[in-house]
Amino acid sequence: MSLERTQQTMNHYFEVMGRGGEFAEFYTADVTWTTTDTGQDVRGPSSVRDFIVALHNNMSDAQTRRIVVSDGHACLEGDCLEAPTGTNSRISYCVAYDVVDDRIAAMRCYGPIAPMCP
User: Could you read off the pLDDT of 63-93 as tens digits, one per residue?
Assistant: First the structure.
């Protein structure tokens, strides 16, 4: 997939997600989400969407630092407040996306987000 098509897909995905739309339409039928610090795998468009919604609901003050896109791949760097600890500590994470035929086929999250996972 070209850089331009990958960029368009990711831009549209984040736009729909940001306005609360049905972002699972951007997933392949066999999409996966992997939380690398725990090895947790979630499979299928509805399950992945529900997981991401729950994860976002558990993340306080999540901020995207950068999104980098290449041919068929994207990477989001972000941070959020650590799970309710009473401190203002932030944790950093990275989500890597594999994009095939204008759909997201796989996502892998790197970083210590396990306390926020549903």
Answer: 999 999 999 999 999 999 876 665 678 899 9
Do 25 and 100 form a contact (C-beta atoms < 8 A)?
no
Enter the tokens of residue 102: 């204008």
Residue with tokens 């999250």: 109
Tokens for 50? Answer: 């529900």
Q: Tell me the Cα Rg of the chain.
A: 14
Question: In whole angstroms, how far apart are CA 20 and each of 24, 47, 70?
Answer: 11, 16, 26
Eight-class DSSP state of 37? T
- Summarised one tens digit per residue, pLDDT across range 11-21 is 999 999 999 99
